[in-house]
Amino acid sequence: MKIAFEKYHGTGNDFILVDIRNHAIPTGADIIAELCDRSFGIGADGLIMLDVSEGHDFDMRYFNADGRESTLCGNGGRCITAFARKLGIIETEASFSAKDGIHHSKILQANDHECLVSLSMADVVTANWTGNSIFLDTGSPHLVQLCSELQKIDVYSEGKKLRNDPRYGPAGTNVNFIESLDGKLNIRTYERGVEDETLSCGTGVTAAAIGWAIRDGLASPIQLHTRGGNLKVSFNREGKIFTDIQLEGPASYVFSGQIEL
After folding, report:
1. DSSP string spanning 24-68?
2. Same domain, yes or no, for 194 and 216?
3. Does the annotation count 36 as an active-site position?
4. How do residues 44-62 score in pLDDT, each as one tens digit?
5. 51, 185, 219, 260: which one has the fewest Cβ atoms less than 10 Å from its Cβ?
6. Looking at the structure, do residues 196 and 216 belong to the same domain, yes or no?
7. Are 201 and 144 found together in one domain?
């Protein structure tokens, strides 16, 4: 069985995108993990399927690189918006369903290879900081850890220690390390399902921005720098409730192809 796919990335967080509106593909974890494998497959941090959705432009199903279906991926949400534009499903705005609910996205700028996309995120009810860390759910669970000398941290080793901490539920958590430098929040993320550091994580960036707003009283928007590029998070805030959260950043086309399963 041959499947057509396209490869996109959002600030270095890369995805295989497949249009399954007219033909399904197997969703076994071993098959998806093989497609995402960087040595034996296409190579990606995850796979995203675009399907029909009643009352909305499309449905988004997201699978981590380990082959397991997961919750929302913020960078992936921007990439599937660019993919839907290329397929002719939308022009500049989209409404789509995902595992955590309905999302809206808007293409702010576009050329043949890259779109600047603003993506609505789910409302967040926040917790308090405990020492130098805070745990938030921004569509996926995230531990945000304040640190110094961010570039020297062994994100793989330190993130792996916290990823399966029983305090964060049976499915574990993503782990984000943050440091404020030159008026911008710098972030590195250990992502569950990939089980390694990724160049960027959209829901992690959102969690970091909200956590930092609570800790330092920062107003919207907040600029963030990941290893893969820059992102912006804006929001409305009433106490510990954050609404109208928007994640803004690029969605870049890489290449298209076919692969035999």
Report:
1. -----HHHHHHHH-TTTSS--SEEEEEEEETTEEEEEEEEETTS-
2. yes
3. no
4. 999 999 999 999 999 999 9
5. 260
6. yes
7. yes
What pLDDT, on a 0 to 100 scale, did the predictor assign at position 61? 97
Task: Give me the pLDDT at residue 218, please.
Answer: 87
Token reading at 192 = 């569950």
For the chain, how many structural domains are there in total?
2
Is 73 a residue of the active site? yes
pLDDT at 1: 86
Give the single-character DSSP code of 172.
Answer: -
Q: What is the mean pLDDT of each run of 10 residues along the chain (261 residues)?
A: 95 98 92 96 97 97 95 94 98 95 97 96 92 93 95 96 90 95 92 96 97 91 97 94 97 96 84
Instruction: Write the burial class of residue 129 (CB in 10 Å: 0-12 exposed, 13-18 middle, 19+ buried).
Output: middle
Question: 258 - beta bridge partners?
Answer: 4
7 and 104 inside one domain = yes
d(CA 8, CA 5): 10
- The residues, any chain, with a CB within 8 Å of residue 20's CB and separated by 6 or more, are 49, 50, 51
Residue of 36, 79, 115, 201 with catalytic role? 201
Of residues 36, 73, 79, 115, which has the active-site annotation? 73
d(CA 145, CA 1): 44
Q: Same domain, yes or no, for 160 and 197?
A: yes
Q: What is the pLDDT of residue 71?
A: 84
